[in-house]
């Protein structure tokens, strides 16, 4: 019986759920440009197997964020996201950091059922909340083995997300027209995200495998950022207004991954993602990870990532660019950018049940900012 | 775009030789280090959250994950 369960567990290696009982406690910390933005993030995860057929995974995280978000503002009234009424002096238009702080709570629950054929069906629910944002998501996944030895599989994923964005009328956004007047008034906007993915995994030999996936994401609703500002008519009648992104976005792409164990101690992983969307953003992501098992207790890892994206068709970072365009944004995240990141990780198994882990990382957006992050934690298997 | 897509797929699958692997030969493939972040999904999720909140791209790493007001 034990052998049977071992074989089942090994056969399921290409699945998304690792079959084991464990509790994991992690603490992660992010620091951008020396405290411009900081995030403290404790995380708890519980994974439970019920026999060989069911796995339940529950995880929760609380992010405490503080820092500043860069955008245009009226310097005559201080660094605030509030939109000034009417035109202002061009000399009063400034670009800088608007302070903010928030707390994000996130809960995820996923249940995986292994069928008689050992195919896997998973359902998941995610709830995330911030002071001005609430998100609910349902997801469904199915993993089907295409051959008897379970060397080839195909997987399907589908999720649907509903997001509620709470816009404070004190900001002066146009969504509040007609109901503003009370500074405490909040207007709710919504966005909806449908995410689909189909993946294919093939074991090449006893040391390597490849994965390929195609994905399509449909977003609609309020896709703008209620805190991001742009400048219109800078040369004639300068005004600071809210940004406006299109209300729909279609994104699709391709993911490829090649994982190879050079020997019993040294493993290399490579991945590439091609992304394109209806906003004209195209991106390329290259990532590699190397692992080295010093012995049965200590494992070290190195992760390197390079990313490049083109700009959205409605983006400009210039304050004298926009006039009466319907869609306009100066949000740097939809501008042309390149980034690099690297992290080092280590895991030490104190005994067969208890392990500790840590990681340090560096992220840089070229010509803009850099950040450092670290993670410490432990995992208890039972 | 389409040409690049086809070239990448062709390069990826060229030279791949497939040998049948029996379940008892999958010890190395089952190691945590055969997954990004060494099977540490929490670190992966955290780092992906950084990318998601600082860049415009998304997708390709599963469909679940939840929403975020960070973007």
Short description:
Chain A is mostly beta strands and 382 residues long.
List keywords for this structure.
heterodimer; A: 382 residues; mainly beta; Porin; 16-stranded antiparallel beta barrel; two-stranded antiparallel ribbon; 1 helix; 18 strands; 63% strand; elongated; B: 71 residues; mainly alpha
Structure notes:
The complex is a heterodimer of chains A (382) and B (71). With 382 residues, chain A is mainly β. Chain A has a domain at 115-381: Beta Barrel (Porin), CATH 2.40.160.40. In chain A, 3% of the residues lie in helices and 63% in strands. Chain A is built from one helix and 18 strands. In chain A, strands 1-2-3-4-5-6-7-8-9-12-13-14-15-16-17-18 form a 16-stranded antiparallel barrel. A two-stranded antiparallel sheet of chain A has the order 10-11. In chain A, β5 (120-130) and β6 form a beta hairpin. The longest helix of chain A has 10 residues, at 2-11. Chain A is elongated. Mean pLDDT of chain A is 90; it is low at 1-18. Chain B has 71 residues and is mainly alpha-helical. Helix content of chain B is 37%, strand content 0%. Chain B contains two helices and no strands. The longest helix of chain B has 14 residues, at 41-54. Chain B is flat. At the A-B interface, α1, β1, β2, β4 and β5 of A face α1 and α2 of B.
Rounded radius of gyration of chain A (Å): 24 Å
- Count all strands of chain B and give the number: 0
* Structural class by SSE content of chain A: mainly beta
Q: Based on helices, strands and strand pairing, what is the structural class of chain B?
A: mainly alpha
Give the largest chain-chain interface (CB within 8 Å).
Answer: A-B, 111 and 57 residues
The major pleated sheet of chain A works out as: 16 strands, antiparallel, barrel
Biggest β-sheet of chain B: count, sense, barrel?
A: none
Strand order of the largest sheet of chain A: 1-2-3-4-5-6-7-8-9-12-13-14-15-16-17-18
Overall residue-averaged pLDDT value of chain B: 78
């Amino acid at each position: 019986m034990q052998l049977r369960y071992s074989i089942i567990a090994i056969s399921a290696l290409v699945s998304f759920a690792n079959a084991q009982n464990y509790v994991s406690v992690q603490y992660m910390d992010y620091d951008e440009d020396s405290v411009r933005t900081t995030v403290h993030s404790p995380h708890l995860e519980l994974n439970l197997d019920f026999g060989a057929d069911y796995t339940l995974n529950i995880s929760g995280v609380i992010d405490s964020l503080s820092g500043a978000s860069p955008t245009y503002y009226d310097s005559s009234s201080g660094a605030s996201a509030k939109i000034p009424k009417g035109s202002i002096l061009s000399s009063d238009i400034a670009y800088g950091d608007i302070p903010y702080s928030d707390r994000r709570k996130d809960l995820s629950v996923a249940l995986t059922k292994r069928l008689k054929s050992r195919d896997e069906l998973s359902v998941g629910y995610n709830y995330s909340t911030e002071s001005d944002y609430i998100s609910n998501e349902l997801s469904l996944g199915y993993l089907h083995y295409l051959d008897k030895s379970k060397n080839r599989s195909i997987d399907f994923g589908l999720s649907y997300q509903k997001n509620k964005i709470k816009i404070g009328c004190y900001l002066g956004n146009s969504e509040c027209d007609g109901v503003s007047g009370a500074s405490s008034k909040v207007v709710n906007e919504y966005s909806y995200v449908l995410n689909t993915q189909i993946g294919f995994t093939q074991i090449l030999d006893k040391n390597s495998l490849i994965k390929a996936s195609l994905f399509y994401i449909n977003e609609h609703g309020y896709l703008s950022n209620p805190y991001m500002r742009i400048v219109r008519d800078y040369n004639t009648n300068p005004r600071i207004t809210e940004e406006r992104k299109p209300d729909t976005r279609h994104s699709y792409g391709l993911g490829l991954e090649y994982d190879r164990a050079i020997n019993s101690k040294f493993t290399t992983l490579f991945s590439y993602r091609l992304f394109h969307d209806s906003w004209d953003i195209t991106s390329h992501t290259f990532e590699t990870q190397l692992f080295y098992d010093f012995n049965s207790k200590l494992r070290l890892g190195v992760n390197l990532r390079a990313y490049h994206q083109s700009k959205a068709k409605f983006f400009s970072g210039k304050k004298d660019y926009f006039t009466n365009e319907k869609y306009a944004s100066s949000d740097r995240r939809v501008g042309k950018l390149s980034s690099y990141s690297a992290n080092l990780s280590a895991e030490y198994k104190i005994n067969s049940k208890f392990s500790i882990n840590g990681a340090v990382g560096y992220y840089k957006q070229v010509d803009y900012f850099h950040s450092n992050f670290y993670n410490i934690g432990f995992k208890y298997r039972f | 775009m389409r040409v690049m897509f086809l070239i990448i797929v062709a390069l990826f699958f060229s030279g791949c030789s497939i040998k049948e692997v029996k379940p008892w030969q999958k010890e190395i493939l089952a190691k945590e280090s055969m997954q990004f972040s060494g099977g540490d999904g929490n670190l992966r999720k955290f780092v992906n959250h950084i990318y998601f909140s600082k860049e415009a791209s998304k997708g390709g790493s599963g469909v679940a994950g939840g929403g975020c007001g960070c973007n």
